[in-house]
Amino acid sequence: MNPLAQQLNTQIQNESPAVHDMLSSLGKNLFYPKGILSQGAEASEKAHKFNATIGIATEHGEPMHFSHIQKRIDYAPKDVYPYAPPQGKPALRDAWLEKLYKDNPSMVGKSIGKPIVTNALTHGLSILADLFMNEGDALVVPNHYWGNYNTVFGVRRGGKIVTFPLFAENTRFDTNGLREALAEQSGKAIVLLNFPNNPTGYTPHEDEANEIVDVLKEAADNGLNLVVVLDDAYFGLFYEDSITESLFGRLAGVHDRILPVKIDGATKENYVWGLRVGFITYAAGKETLAALEQKTKGIIRGTISSGAHISQTMILESLQSPEFEVEKQQKFDVMKGRAVKTKEILSDAKFDKHWTYYPFNSGYFMCVKLHEIDAEELRLHLLDQYGVGVISNNQTDIRVAFSCVDEEDLTELFDLIYQACEDLTTN
């Protein structure tokens, strides 16, 4: 093992033995090398005459670039063309942390690391899998979950997907199901909670959130080490009857055997999917946070090297804009209007003939559970006969993204889904 990796492991073990035990074999071997980037960073601070370190080209004191590209960009060359640091643009990290504290008052006063920039949320989840998952380790998730978790944690890292019911009696979060799933694990488990949930669009109520924290603490008290990953991709889109903060703040510092990790980003929250800017934030002791940042930088350096600089510049400027809060509220109102309209439409008893819908109160999506029709058969029929696209999640469920249908078109959308169901049950 590299001495730098061993040093980081000792640093974690001395402060947080349980977190050290949570690390995967790869995670224990990870470190940030003292190579070109670290030497270049030092030179950027002290080399006042010539800086001949980082592998970029310069011209007349600024990064070399094509004028036909620059004329289309309203940013200084220094904020576009050089490599961003592996951990992200410093000002962006500071701005996102400030946003986290503003949006999540429960985080204030907790020992929380500075957000590390990722190439959006899937990259953040991949980092977590590399750091903490060995082959055969359990990923505990609700039974309604984003299918890409299978690839990130199962295919790539050999993890075992363990599910529990998201809903109890189709009305509330099934905390007993979570408790039972955790009781079956030993040693370590990674718990992944995604609220607002993809695919159902559900976020727990206040009492449910408290129960979730209690169940996790109970499992930790019983000796289970828990990496609790909060996939907050759709954070902020809370429309009714739910918590409006991430569970991350409630879990920070709650137990020595619980390591909360927040995965979020501008992607879904700020409607900039293609810019690919996400963040990973840890809650732990000071020394552990420092070591985890070095290991995370090591993963980034060894995979994508660093995220796109121009995307980070754009997100930073957006966060600092006086128009940010105004426009975010405007878009929130549009999304909430679509969610409310969807519930209004589904209150029509005629739909009960073919489906019931899972509770939803947030996010981009909602799901219906079909009574007698195969979901994939319905999906294909809708596409072929009506030009309507939905997602079939399993044999019974289809996901509808009201996020990409104008409010005035939602009635027609669900009427077409209903008609397709009629077709398949009467022919």
Keywords, separated by commas or semicolons:
single chain; 427 residues; alpha/beta; four-stranded antiparallel β-sheet; 17 helices; globular
How is this structure best described in words?
The protein contains 17 helices and 15 strands. The protein has helices spanning 3-15, 17-22, 25-29, 36-46, 67-70, 90-103, 120-132, 148-155, 175-183, 206-221, 247-251, 266-269, 286-303, 309-320, 324-346, 375-386, 410-426, and strands at 58-59, 62-63, 116-118, 138-142, 160-164, 167-168, 172-173, 188-194, 225-231, 258-265, 278-282, 355-357, 365-370, 391-392, 397-401. A 7-stranded mixed β-sheet has the order 3-11-10-9-8-4-5, sandwiched between helices. α9 (175-183) packs parallel to α10 and α16 (375-386) packs across α17 (410-426). 44% of the residues are buried. The model has no long low-confidence stretch (mean pLDDT 95).
Short description:
The protein is of the alpha/beta class and 427 residues long. The chain has helices spanning 3-15, 17-22, 25-29, 36-46, 67-70, 90-103, 120-132, 148-155, 175-183, 206-221, 247-251, 266-269, 286-303, 309-320, 324-346, 375-386, 410-426, and strands spanning 58-59, 62-63, 116-118, 138-142, 160-164, 167-168, 172-173, 188-194, 225-231, 258-265, 278-282, 355-357, 365-370, 391-392, 397-401.
Write the layout of secondary structure elements.
Layout: H1 3-15, H2 17-22, H3 25-29, H4 36-46, E1 58-59, E2 62-63, H5 67-70, H6 90-103, E3 116-118, H7 120-132, E4 138-142, H8 148-155, E5 160-164, E6 167-168, E7 172-173, H9 175-183, E8 188-194, H10 206-221, E9 225-231, H11 247-251, E10 258-265, H12 266-269, E11 278-282, H13 286-303, H14 309-320, H15 324-346, E12 355-357, E13 365-370, H16 375-386, E14 391-392, E15 397-401, H17 410-426
Parallel strand pairs: 4-5, 4-8, 8-9, 9-10
Antiparallel strand pairs: 1-2, 3-11, 6-7, 10-11, 12-13, 13-15, 14-15
Helix pairs in contact: 1-13, 6-14, 7-8, 9-10, 16-17
